[in-house]
Specification:
Layout lengths: L5 E6 L11 E3 L4 E3 L4 E3 L2 E3 L5 H8 L3 H6 L4 E5 L7 H5 L15 H16 L4 E12 L2 E4 L10 E4 L5 E4 L4 E2 L3 H14 L18 E14 L2 E13 L14 H16 L1 H4 L9 H10 L4 E5 L1
Length: about 300
């Protein structure tokens, strides 16, 4: 289990002419610019393929999930810089081909492999939820009924939760991929699309969560565990310069402030500004209960 609960990866794609002034040193996690060097937990060059990106950044999180810890992988950056390609790819893996798939499919492959290995010793169930935050509303992407929008609520402990979401039990990776296809067809920005492609939305934030529930006996102890792995594909960050289309820039700015506070022990002890936007209010359930978060820029 990693001792750090926040890690940051940068994936660098260079335009023609930039190769002479910007350099990526993956083994050191450094991006060199003309006047400075910037250090990350992971620096990924444009010639590193999707599976290598997964192995470097995300593969180690699967064991944490089955140990009962929550984890979140977030993709952040301007539109058309590869956020959705990194998370979802252009295909969903399995019999659809692995060469252009993303972190979700690779994670599902390893989650279900681990599920099969643990199943003789543990009672395990897996389910998924899938929703978008668009125009300051939460839309459930696993139900065709537009009136079934989810909403913010609190549980018996006073913690913020997203209520009204459809959770579908999935005993195989193929069933999860079918849920993703269904959600894609329901997205408000993609009603005419039938598969992952290049027309990626820059208006809405997308959240996919895989929930793992386990029960087993260890010695004289009966153990129950519920853990979540979430993938968050954020809207384009270039919207910081505009106040149109529902104030998406304020949500992303608030999310920046939350992540900064969570990563700073001095601030975390005092105040984390979750309530500065609807986006961060919704993501509080992911950001405040995790063991490990990986953010792509």
């Amino acid at each position: 289990m990693s001792q750090r609960n926040v890690e940051v990866a940068v994936r660098v794609g260079l335009s023609s002419g930039q190769e002479d002034v910007i350099h990526v040193i993956p083994e050191r996690g450094i991006v060199t610019l003309p006047d400075t060097n910037v250090e990350f937990d992971f620096a990924i060059s444009q010639d590193q393929d999707q599976e290598l990106v997964y192995n470097i950044t995300t593969a180690n999180l699967i064991e944490n999930l089955f140990q009962g810890f929550n984890t979140t992988v977030t993709a952040y950056g301007p539109t058309n810089t590869g956020k959705t390609f990194t998370i979802f790819g252009y295909s969903l893996g399995n019999d659809r081909g692995w060469s252009h798939t993303g972190l979700v499919a690779f994670s599902l492959r390893d989650i279900y492999d681990r599920f099969e290995k643990l199943l003789p010793k543990r009672n395990i169930s897996l389910c998924v939820s899938y929703y978008e935050i668009n125009n300051d509303e939460i839309h459930d992407l696993l139900t065709p009924d537009p009136s079934c929008n989810a909403f913010l609520d609190t549980d018996e402990t006073g913690s913020v939760i997203v209520s009204g979401l459809t959770e579908i039990d999935c005993i195989s990776m193929d069933q999860v991929l079918c849920c993703l296809d269904r959600g894609l067809k329901l997205r408000s920005q993609f009603q005419s699309m039938t598969s992952f492609g290049s027309n990626l939305t820059k208006h809405s934030h997308m959240v996919l969560t895989i929930v793992v529930k386990q029960r087993w006996i260890e010695g004289d102890a009966y153990i129950e565990s519920t853990s979540r792995m979430s993938f968050v594909d954020l809207a384009g960050s270039e919207r910081f310069g505009s106040n149109v289309d529902g104030g998406y820039n304020s949500g992303l700015l608030a999310l920046n402030n939350v992540i900064t506070a969570l990563g700073d022990p001095r601030r975390k002890a005092h105040h984390v500004p979750y309530w500065d936007s609807r986006l961060t209010s919704v993501l509080k359930v992911l950001l405040s209960i995790i063991l490990h978060r990986l953010t792509f820029y």
